[in-house]
Specification:
Cofactor: FAD
Shape: globular
Radius of gyration: 24 Å
Distance between the termini: 76 Å
Protein name: thioredoxin-disulfide reductase (NADPH)
Number of strands: 21
Number of domains: 3
Oligomer: single chain
Largest sheet: 7 strands, mixed
Low-confidence stretches: 403-410
Strand content: 15-25%
Helix content: 25-40%
Disulfide bonds: 52-57
Binding site for NAD(+): 190-197, 276
Keywords: Disulfide bond, FAD, Flavoprotein, NAD, NADP, Nucleotide-binding, Oxidoreductase, Redox-active center
Bound molecules: flavin-adenine dinucleotide, ligand NA7
Length: 492
Amino acid sequence: MTSYDYDYVVIGGGSGGMASSKEAARLGARVALFDFVKPSTQGTKWGLGGTCVNVGCVPKKLMHYAGLLGAGLHDARHFGWRLGEPTHDWTALRTAVQNHVKSLNFGYRNGLRSAKVNYLNQLARFADPHTVEYTEKDGSVKRLTAAHICISVGGRPIIPTDVPGAVEHAITSDDIFALKNAPGRTLVVGASYIALECAGFLNELGYDVTVAVRSIVLRGFDRQCSEKVASLMADIGVKFKYGPLPTKIEKADGQLHVTFSDGTVDTYQTVLYATGRYADTGGLALENAGVVVGKNGKIPVINEVTNVPHIYAVGDIVEGGLELTPVAIRAGELLARRLFAGATEQMDYVNVPTAVFTPFEYGCVGYTEEAAIAKYGEENIETYLFEFASLELGAAHRSKVPARRADEFDDALPLPCLSKLVCLKPEGERVVGFHYVGPNAGEVTQGFALAVILGATKKDFNKVIGIHPTDAESFTALDITRASGQPFAASG
Ligand code: FAD
Ligand code: NA7
């Protein structure tokens, strides 16, 4: 029998690779993990743990929270807090966020050490199907062999190369959370959730933000909820520019002059591209291992196995997968259990809950209304809807104006919450889509996802006694269907 240096080598120490390597080591495998960060186009670098910890979920959620605190200042005043005119200090926020991220990097290093995973801070590539190699600082090439190899190198932001000045001057989500100077007037290009989340917290922190939308916002999400999220963002000050996109970005006097496809020119301090991500598989020399690569660098797999039976892929690089941290983690752990503990459980990519952390959050699990209709036919779908103001925001007269302008209370936000259940009529109104726009949507959706996964019907939702007064209790008493044509917005 061939003997290898390791039972398992994992390339990429992000959410998926870290989880898989630790689980394999826990199960007794001899494991090595490679993680190396190539600087962003603007030279930003970060530590161990991958996208989520350094330039994704974690710093994003902290900046979102900072934004919510700003919005809450308006409510605080309404409820009697006497505050001076608040100002926001970007450097303090950046420092707090980066310090937290660094503490997580430290924890991950220790975690690998105590799990007995051999961590190599090196850029790995394939030499042959069982051999991974890397180049030391002194130029020497080192190799190690493994029985099983998992690729989990994640993705990086795409900046279109056909827009002169974009690669040179624009930042991405790889840079925004560590930006040295306050972003100032910002143009966000792209309209998926990373774009809207960044636009959302920058607006709440007090910056003038424009989002350049090529077609629609939040492609792939429920249309009604997506448009509600965008319209609420517009209400609180985010500008949406539908259609025209940058064709040229020029820097002069420290400002970015952006020419749009409609011929207009505007000036910003920051341009942030959030126009999708490519799988970072280009430098892996996959051809040396015979691994097939698909569109955008993604790797086709069946149950995480590539076309080469002992080489696997997990996380964002999986073709047709879901680019979410908990998905990468679970897939990586289950893979390790199948490889080293004889387990048989496969990753279930259906009914994965998710949330968009825009100023008014949006959470969902299951089908969008459009996808449910496309799959089951309109006659088989019943959609229940309710639009309302949460008690707190309603009572605080949360206003449309930027939260930090205390004096303007009169222009109240429209109803900021939307609860929606998409039900399958032939199966006793089984809930196949759960959607909620409103405060704490991530928390609300996480809880209800269990019901959806277990096959709950509309009647089951009705059986639940609400917790009063909450926004989530709306799901226990939805009674207006789209088919009825009745207004579903709360009145009075
Ligand atoms: P990654 O976490 O990207 O890790 C891959 C690692 O491999 C990186 O450290 C990379 O530097 C390293 N690497 C690459 N090539 C090599 C090589 N050749 N050798 C060695 N190392 C290499 N998901 C959520 O669930 N919730 C959220 O709220 C959320 N918010 C997000 C916000 C933003 C702005 C972004 C960008 C992403 C967000 N995501 C979110 C997605 C989430 O971050 C990813 O799904 C997750 O990090 C994917 O994990 P991964 O293991 O596939 O790869
Ligand atoms: P997505 O989900 O791939 O969305 C990309 C967005 O950028 C989308 O709105 C696109 O518009 C838009 N886009 C794409 N190319 C361009 C160009 N050239 N110009 C302007 N706009 C463009 O990317 P995200 O980065 O938000 O998220 C990727 C994943 O990473 C996500 O699932 C997270 O889990 C982590 P379109 O709708 O195609 O017209």
